[in-house]
Amino acid sequence: MIAAALLTPMLVALIMMLAWGRAGWHFWLGTLGSVTHLAITFMLGQEVWNSGPIALQVGEWGVSFGWHIGIVLIADQISVLMLGLTGVIGLATQLYAAGTIDRPRWRFGYFPLVQFLLFGVSGAFLTGDLFNLFVWFEVLLIASFVLVALGGERKQLAGGLKYVALNLLSSALFLSGCGLLYATSGTLNMSDLSAIHTANPGLQALIGTILLAAFGIKAAAFPFFMWMPAAYPAPPASVAALFAGLMTKVGVVAIVRLLYSALPGLFDHLAPILICLAILSMAVGSLGVIAARGFRRMLAFSSVSQIGFILLGVSMGGAGLVVAVYYILQHSVAKTGLFLIAGEDERGNQLPKWASAFFFVFALSLAGIPPTAGFLSKFGILSLTETVSGPESALLWLPWAGFGVGIVSSIFTTVGLYRFGIPIWQRSGVEEITVKRPPVVAVGVALLATVSICLSLFAGSVFSFMGGFPA
Prior knowledge:
Blueprint lengths: L1 H17 L5 H28 L2 E5 L12 E5 L1 H22 L4 H5 L2 H17 L3 H20 L4 H32 L4 H5 L6 H19 L7 H5 L5 H26 L4 H25 L3 H20 L4 H27 L7 H15 L5 H11 L14 H30 L11 H19 L1 H7 L6
Antiparallel strand pairs: 1-2
Helix pairs in contact: 1-2, 1-5, 2-3, 3-5, 3-11, 3-14, 3-18, 5-6, 6-7, 6-11, 7-9, 9-11, 11-13, 11-14, 12-13, 12-17, 13-14, 13-17, 14-15, 14-16, 14-18, 15-17, 15-18
């Protein structure tokens, strides 16, 4: 099932490539692939629930000799939840794109590119090896580079240039960190790295900082966030929504793997750095939300702020990690939905009646209004600041600073959503729509709204599933 969850999007993309001349098939093949991916992920989640984490040694390289080499895939609570998130966002954006993507982009391979992107994202969530994580990053980045520029519009190329440049810098840092880590440890397998006690802790701390910077760029954390406000307003709404829901979360999950799986001994060294990045990300993102002039640009700066919230939870360990993963789920779903609503808003005065209702669902969760999933995750992270603060803690006042900035950030996010949401609310259904969207567009947004509500109603079940995370 691990292999099936990984290979399904790749096989679907290859079938689409073989049917290149029949672009009309691409949507149906992609929809079937996304539904299949979700079904496999659900079965894999049941196995993890019943039996705990599952490992797959691909090709069984060196197993009989006790060698820890080759490709290792791990299905645990984090990877299963992220795979489910990938399937939901992939299906929702697929449905929305069917009624909004223009025919030239359709014929030039939009849907195969999305499946290749989902293939790379799935591999990044499942890998148990740092070098293979680098490989999966490159797979998804190649697909994302083309999706950003597909169409060749001037604003796409301008935004894509910053996106490509900063991600290439991230890849260079990542590869350098992997090389240094292999030179000092002799392995890049995460489970093996966690058991090694290095004779040079200073060098390992430097390597950990390099890797943290590489993953911070991909997560769009301060100070490497400027590619996001430049890149997200440029492509079609379905592409921006796909990126907002998944791309930055790959970087965040990589930070989680670094701190909890690969180099847990560096947690005390890296946690204060991570808290500082979280506070600055929330502060800068909040200012950007207030200053932004466009809806999509406001959402991009809001993502920077929300990434800060997530990193704050990750830096606290234990319960903070569990709440941070829950935050990733609710934020990805809500932000993807809002980017799709932004695509409807860009049509001018012609807004469907469902736009305001779904905007209301996503905005409440993103702002953290009770009793939404956004409120549960924000309240959980902010309430944990007391447990890691105080004179006896090496973190001292930093979590309390995160608490204060987090409150202000939530207020600014609410103001930004109000500023752009009121026009949407007023215009929805007021004027007759002359060019109507296919019903499948509304179905994609409705799927995300349903998942957002379910995350709130069944939060206890989600936390129970995540109970196996390391303390």
